[in-house]
Design a protein that fits this description.
Radius of gyration: 13 Å
Number of strands: 4
Structural class: alpha+beta
Amino acid sequence: MKINDELFDYFKQAGTIKHYQKNDIIYMQEDDSTNLYLILKGRVRVFNINPMGEEVTFEFLEKGRIFGESSFFQN
């Protein structure tokens, strides 16, 4: 989900800023999440590992995108 510039500053001020390095795993599909993630800078690759052990990229998320919301709202 992409948020508009007006809401971006609101979310940025309301949350806690964490820094991740390239190739860090932030969130796994089967994880229960109590967090909602907003990308402030850089990009995040969304991928899965197929039965043959290969990584399959679905999407790259960039600044202003929120992810982890489906598990967050379930909890």
